[in-house]
Amino acid sequence: MAAAKGLNLRFISKIKVVFNPFQWETASAREFLRILDTQTVRDSNPKCQIHSEISNKKNDPKIEVQFADKEAMVLDTGNMKVVDILSQFNKKYKEKEQTS
């Protein structure tokens, strides 16, 4: 997956992935969490806190990202594919990279 290959956490301070494991809509959020847990991605910012929160509510899964400058991004991933999540994440990351 090309979008995951260049994934970098340099400008990210915290990521939280919230999902109900019994809903089929959570597959993309869980895959994103799996990608975040790879050594290459973790090495890009060892100080970045990555949390998962298991929910028993029937809410759509979501990914909450907090950047180092305290700006936040929330993705409701219920109807998103992992490629779409990575695309949104990388787009926002590139914006941060250009402004720093």
UniProtKB/TrEMBL annotation:
Its main location: mitochondrion. GO terms for cellular component: mitochondrial large ribosomal subunit. It is found in: Mitochondrion. The keyword Ribonucleoprotein applies. Transmembrane segments: none annotated. The keyword Mitochondrion applies. Keywords: Mitochondrion, Ribonucleoprotein, Ribosomal protein, Transit peptide. Belongs to the mitochondrion-specific ribosomal protein mL53 family. This is Large ribosomal subunit protein mL53. It comes from Paramuricea clavata.
